[in-house]
Amino acid sequence: MRTPLLALLLPLCLTACLETTSNKTEQTKTNAVENTSTPIPQQKLPQANKQNKIAQPLPADAAKEVSLDDIKTAKDKLNSLIADKQCSTSSQCKVNAVGSRACGGPSDYIVYSTQSAPQKQVSALSDTITQLESTYNAQKGMMSICQHLTAPSTQCVENKCVKLEGSAVSVF
């Protein structure tokens, strides 16, 4: 006896709840229409400190004009510095982000050995290349594929630092 009674009362109660919510929704819509007819004063929103990651053209006098030759020269210096990838342990193998895509993020990752290349020099050259590419992208209004590259893992294999294929260190 309880089950048929519940089967009848439950839909009745649910429909009663639906009618009140639709009435409230209609009242809210009417109030919203009435409120839009009166002008609302504009408030100044605080500016966000983050800069837009998409490259935008810079004013001509904002920075020195960067050419592809400047970037190539810096990359050649970095590649000659990290050419020797000799290592004795995996802890000597490091990964560093290099370059800047127009949408943001690094354009590449390099693998090097701290046994043969000083970490501070590699970091400084990587930062220089990143700044040059970022400036170049902004000056030329470049666009890119906006694909996120993940930092690869490295390991000392046969006394050489190698990038492990198919593995990545996630920052999430």
UniProtKB/TrEMBL annotation:
Region (Disordered): 24-50
Signal sequence region: 1-16
Name of the featured protein: Lipoprotein
Highest taxon in the source lineage: Bacteria
Keywords linked to the UniProt accession: Signal
Source species: Pseudoalteromonas undina
